[in-house]
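Troubleshooting log. The previous structure file for this entry was overwritten by mistake, so regenerating from the original sequence record. Sequence copied from the archived sheet and checked twice against the printout by T.R.
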Amino acid sequence: MIDDPQAPVGPFEPPYYVAVFTTVRTSEQSGYGETNARMEELVKQVPGYLGMDHAQTPGGLGITVGYFRDAEALAQWRTDAEHRAAQRRGRAEWYERYTLHVAKVERSTGFTRP
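Regenerated output below.
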């Protein structure tokens, strides 16, 4: 796994899973940065975690895509106690709205200019 914040996560051998978290945040962001950094640190400890992509539009739409080797890895992340607490705080304080899409990837390709 290449950890370059300026490059997308590369393709993996399918099947694997993605969790696409799309958000619009509130104006109240106290504690968000610290919690987000902790969640990024914590998810990296999940066996089967493959990587994560982030994007933020100037208008405030945020997209995070997490990649997981199998459904068990994704379930471990979903049920982690610290992650669940952050989810509750997100709903109470940080997010105006969000969607979560989970999908099984059946095809994966990539391109890098030489």
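The chain has three helices and four strands. Archived copy saved in two places this time.
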